[in-house]
Structure formats: C-alpha cells, structure tokens
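Sample 3 of the quickstart, ligand nicotinamide-adenine-dinucleotide:
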Amino acid sequence: MTEQPDIHPRKELLDRVAVITGAASGIGLAITRRFVQEGAKVALWDFNVARLEQAKEALRQSADEEQLFLVTCDITKDEDVVAGMKSTVDHFGRLNIAVNNAGVSVSVPSDECTLEQWNWVMNVNCTGSFLVSREAIKVFKQQADGGVLVYTNSDNSLKPSKHFLAYNASKAAVLHMARTIANEFGPHHIRANSVLPGAVFGGSQMWTQELRQARADLHGYSADALEEEYKKANALGVIIDPAEIAELVVFLASDRSAKMTGNALVIDGGGLGGFVR
Ligand SMILES: NC(=O)c1ccc[n+]([C@@H]2O[C@H](COP(=O)([O-])OP(=O)(O)OC[C@H]3O[C@@H](n4cnc5c(N)ncnc54)[C@H](O)[C@@H]3O)[C@@H](O)[C@H]2O)c1
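Result:
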C-alpha cells in the first residue's frame, strides 16, 4: 500500500505569499491571523491606514515582523491595484494566494437605492475583486505552480435578502467571476473558490449602528435583539465567527483543496426553508 500524504501538515502555508484585501478588520483580519500562524507571508491591503496600523499591532503575538507587509490601496482604483501588486511582488518576490475579501454593504428598499449607493457597493465588491483578480492572475501565469484565488463572498449571492439590492447583485456577480476564472485558468494551475458566510458580527466594521437599525427595522425587531434574532434564522441557531470563516479560507488556499476549483462553500448555520447551493 502506498503511504498516504499527511493532509494536516503543520504550517501548511509556510512561505506562501498572500494578498488579503480588507485585511485591516473583521473577517480579513481573522484570515490574516490564521495565514501568518500557518507560516504565510501576508500583504495586508486596505485603504484605511489607521486601521492597518492597528491590525499590525493586533497581530504582534501571531506574526514575525517579516511576515507582514502593509499596502495602502483603494481596490476600486486601477492604478492603486496595479501599484499594490507590483509593490507586493517586489517585496516578497512572488505571489501564491490572493484573497478577495474587502466588501461593503448598504441596506435600503430597492426602489430607494441611489446611484451613489449602488456604485459604491458595486465598485468595492465587484470591480475591486475584478481588478485584484486580474492582477493576481497576471503574476500567477508567470509561475510554474500557478496560484490560488479565494473570495469572501456571502450567502446573499444565492439567497437575496430584501433591501440588499446592490449587495446581493454584487455578490452574485463575484460568485460567477470566481467560476469564470476557475474555468478559464485551470490549465495555468490557477484555482478560484468562494466562501459564502451568513451574518458575522464579531470584529466587523460593516455592521455599523445604521446597518443594524436598518436590518432590525426591516425584520420588525429592535436593533439590540438583532444577533439573537439572526440565530433563529438558521437551522443550528448560531452566529458565525470570523475565525470560522478563516478556517475555510486556509483550507481553500492550501494543498488540501488542490483539486477543488469553481466551488462555493456555504457557512451559514444551515439555511432554513431550503439549502440553495
Ligand atoms: N460581516 C458579515 O456579516 C458578512 C457576512 C457575509 C459576508 N461578508 C463579507 O466579508 C467581507 C468582509 O466583511 P467584514 O464584515 O469583515 O467587514 P469590515 O468592514 O470589518 O472589513 C472590510 C474591510 O475592507 C476595507 N475596505 C472597504 N472598502 C475598501 C476599498 N475600496 N479598498 C480597500 N479596502 C477597503 C475596510 O477598510 C475594512 O477594513 C466582505 O466582503 C463582506 O461582504 C460579511
């Protein structure tokens, strides 16, 4: 019998170079923490300079100084993304993983969504992911071993919640972006997979008081009850933790998922009333 490979090696991202967008807070910061624990070198991309510095401080326990590289970058700007990718590759010498994580949302009735709100959400979630993916693929294609794209998407890409028109549409587009890339660049050893979380409150800056109030108003309860009410909306009665999303991203970035591409892994506590996949 041939020896089976160890599928849970320690430091399974050792010396892999990753870009993580929106790395300064919430889910992006949790992904960054797990990546550096697994030995990766991470370029933290975010446009919030103060939060980037706070993130570096927060990672002091988990990371060696040389594992982190802060990149101030607005992913909606072509020139920022091109420059960010160049500085990342110049700094670390290569790129193995790009995590498209930065995202924003706005909750309004669909017939009241302004063009400004629509453009903001589509630009960050959709155009930003496109620009980062495009520049990452250019680097991956020059490398014999290709590279990995992972997208922090949302269960809203499959289950469109009311009052989330721009968010739902942007996330559905990015789901197909990942699948298109998976189809097109398999021969270059490039994989593209998505993680689709349900609501994640821990550390998230996206859940402003305004967003909490808007979602609570929509469902008809108080903003203070939001998290408890969200638990009732899934089969397991749970809220998802950023670290649990990070676990899936590590898996999809690692060799354990070497034969998976074009996939979408849902982590939402189980959708009541059906499991759309
Ligand atoms: N929190 C949730 O309930 C939830 C659920 C499902 C999916 N998601 C997705 O997870 C991702 C991360 O969400 P989060 O809750 O951690 O949010 P967050 O607001 O805590 O983090 C997002 C980060 O993206 C950065 N960012 C925003 N616009 C940017 C831009 N133009 N250029 C560069 N950086 C920019 C912000 O500065 C911030 O640090 C998003 O894509 C979101 O859609 C979140």
